[in-house]
Each structure stands twice: as C-alpha cells, then as structure tokens.
C-alpha cells in the first residue's frame, strides 16, 4: 500500500510538470531591470508571485493533459504522460487542477495586490481557451503563449510595486514568441522527416522556410530592441549606465546559439529542456546577469 501511495504521489507531481516552473522566473525580470536586486522586500513579493504562477500554470497543465489524453496516448513521447498512460485518472487530474488553481488564487488574494489576482485570472481564462481551441489556430497559438510570459513580467512588477518599462514588455513578448516559433519549427521538422505522423492542427499552417524567416526576423528585432533599451534615458525609472549596452553582446550570442540549436541541430522541441541542458546557453545567461548587475552597481 505505501508503495502504491508513493507512486501515485510521484505521478501527481509529474502531472504538475515542475520542470516547467523555470518559465515563471520571468516574474523576477522587473527586479533585475529596475536595479533593485538588493531589495529584500522586492524579492519576497516577486517570490510569492512566482509561487502563484507555478500553481496556476500547473493547473493548466493538468487541464491540458485531460483534454489531450486521447491524442497523447497515440504519440510515442506524450503517451507516457500520467493521464495518457492511465497512471492518473481524469477525475484525479481535474481535482488537482481545481486545487492548484484555488491555492494560487487564495495565496494571491491574501498576500499580493489585487491587480496580481486579476492577472492570474486572465492567464487562467486565456489558457483555457488555448487548451480548448486557440492552440490549433496558426499564429494565434504562439501569440497566446507569448502573452502568457508578458503577464508573468507584469505580475512581477505589480507584486513588487516596480514601474515596468515598455521596452521590457516588448522584449519579453518578442523573446517568448521567438521560443514558441522555435518549438513549432521542431514539430514541423519532425513531421516532414517522418519522425512524427502528424502534429497539432496549427502546425499544418507552418513551413520550415516561413519559420526560418520568422525566427531570423524576431532574433534581429529582439537584439536591436535590447540595445535600444540599454541606451535610452530612463529618467529615474530604471537603471542607467553608459556601459549598459555592453550586455547586448551576451544577448546576441544567446540568440545566435539558440538559432543554431533550432535550425542546424533541430533541438528546439522543449525550450525549457533545451536551455537547462545546454551549457553554452546557461553560461551566457550567467554572464549576462552578472555583467548587468556589475555595470549597474559600478
């Protein structure tokens, strides 16, 4: 009996996809870009915001696995997901979905500004429509995913009472769109290489030439946007330094490295796993954060 309970708990935890929680680290961007990385109160507030987003995003993962359990059972990789494999029943998955959503809302209402709860509700509603319908609509699917990351950043700013630059919003959206397009390219490549019989419905509207062009465009705009952010005067609403533009170099390297993984090696299936398993990307991310903090402090 204890073994059964242990296995069930393990499968329920797997259903929550904790490895995807790294995406919610985007709530910390306002703290970093505002130069308040030594402000303990700001970190405490954004940490609570991150926990709320981890819970609400996990509730969406539960709902998505219930919605796609039949199609997932036919996929060579996704058939191992808890619901598709039968390790977690549909009622159990729906119950876990409700519990995590309620916990997220309760924590937000009790500890964060009202606007943060509104953002969570917006994210939840938007992703319900995404799971049911919008993820099958070309371009709309990736725009919805990118909007989710913008909501994370906005919530981080509101939680810590930090002014959010329009540049941060724009760059977050472009970066998320870049990663979403990279994932779609991986799916299209798998279908064309006969590694996968068929992808999601929206994939049929994409082609490799289109996605390669889109990724090149987004990467270029993202780098230019970042450099413009570093040289624009902040008028007291953000960190300023005449040397901040130097941090554009690791950003450029990171974009080119991800393009290499996507187009040359076709390894962009899961952005979370790609970034966390690629030493050059992790190294350049660390260099960017350290250089940004040092330049602001100097």
Explain briefly what this protein structure is:
This protein is mainly α and 298 residues long.
Low-confidence stretches: none
Question: What fraction of the residues are assigned to beta strands by DSSP?
Answer: under 5%
Number of domains: 2
Q: What can be said about the biggest beta sheet?
A: none
Shape: globular
CATH architecture of the largest domain: Orthogonal Bundle
Q: CATH superfamily assignment of the largest domain?
A: UbiA prenyltransferase
| Helix fraction bin | 55-70%
CATH topology call of the largest domain: Tetracycline Repressor, domain 2
Count all strands and give the number. 0
Write down the overall mean pLDDT: 87
How many helical stretches? 12
N-to-C order of helices and strands: HHHHHHHHHHHH
Which structural class should the secondary elements be placed in? mainly alpha
> Which CATH top level class of the largest domain fits?
Mainly Alpha
Radius of gyration: 20 Å
Distance between the termini: 60 Å
